[in-house]
Design brief:
This protein is an alpha/beta fold. The chain has a domain at 25-260: Type I PLP-dependent aspartate aminotransferase-like (Major domain) (Aspartate Aminotransferase, domain 2), CATH 3.40.640. Helix content is 36%, strand content 14%. It contains twelve helices and 14 strands. The strands form three sheets. The chain has a seven-stranded mixed β-sheet with strand order 1-9-8-5-4-2-3, sandwiched between helices. It is globular. The mean pLDDT is 97. The protein binds pyridoxal-5'-phosphate. Pyridoxal-5'-phosphate binds next to α3.
Length: 412
Amino acid sequence: MTELAINGGPKVRTQPFPPRNLVGEEDRAALNALIDDALATGKVINYNGPAEKKYEQDFAEWMGGGYADGVNSGTNALFCAIGALNIDALSEIIVPPITDPGGCMPVLFAGCVPVVADSDPRSFNASAEGIASRITERTRAIIVAHIAGEAADMDPIMELAAKHNLYVIEDCSQCHGALYKGRKVGSIGHIAAFSTMSGKHHCTGGQGGVVYTTNENLHIEGKRFADRGKTFQPNPPYNVRAGLNCNLDDIGATIGSCQIKKLPGMLERRWHNGEMLKQALLKNPAVKVGWQVPDSKCIYWFFRLTIDTNVLKCDKKTFCDALGAEGILVQADYANIPCKGQWFIDQRVFGNSGYPWQCPAYKGDRHPVYDMHNAEEAIAKNFIIYENERYTDDDMKDIIDAINKVTEYYLK
Ligand SMILES: Cc1ncc(COP(=O)(O)O)c(C=O)c1O
């Protein structure tokens, strides 16, 4: 048995993994054309201009129809998706068990109260059961995040939402293009939010986001909310509700249009890599690619790997430390449960007021403590490995060899 790198043995992976190379010559050519046009005509680079309209059309076409509004971050895409629903302040919105803070915080700035659902024990995503126990007479919407490129089990969630007359917002920030029963995620709920910052499957530059829906009214309301409540009409009233300025601009949109052309190829590669890992680990007694909803196609934003420490002589942290020493980009805990964040526990949103929970008009639980045992178990039993669409079969082979090497060493 080869000595582990953490104990001074040779590393499986000696070279750095490939960078994403997301920006290509086509992005440069398109940006040059935008600047050339500005120079030739004297026009400013705008927002809501032709490049943004084109990107929104490209995005909607890629989704198979519907309406897209480019905004300036995934956090604000979620904020505007909530804004599109026009729900009353102090309504409760159910938020995902495990998500980026940007997948929860917009609820508060929309004047609503986040209520955290528990996950399916087999994944990082919410389940209908985990959501059902959180519904009260104050609930108006459910945010479902598709974490790690894996589709959540949407049919039971949509049934539950229909039964209680609730909106469903899909947060597809980590999931551009996964399929659930043949449908693209983002087209199943009432409205969806995508982050298009530079780490996501496709991007609009350093930051960006998209609000997507097949409902024209929700699209108009979301767009209005993203641009100070504008009517977009030539005559007064020009502004019919309050909103912020969450607009994308023509530079980001120009990049977005280039990226979305490359997206199908990038997704296929990520899928190929994930499936290669899945197949290879079928023979590994301790580590497997995490369970996925049947009849879904995962597009692997990162690899979520489930570890069975019962068959090992070490705990998960020791295993991940050893894997990291082999040169693999590993993170032991994806510990992003919103209600475990110190800001949430301290209710630090609007100064020291404790609002919205402490607002006298709010009739729900002012100091909620949620049973998150499934999400905690999912975090404990899983670790993640970073990857991107530039990883070749040889890169994947190194990841597989390193996992097998560390497993063999620690196997009971
Ligand atoms: C699930 C989820 N929602 C929302 C966000 C926020 O997106 P952004 O960073 O573009 O604001 C992220 C960011 O990673 C995310 O992963």
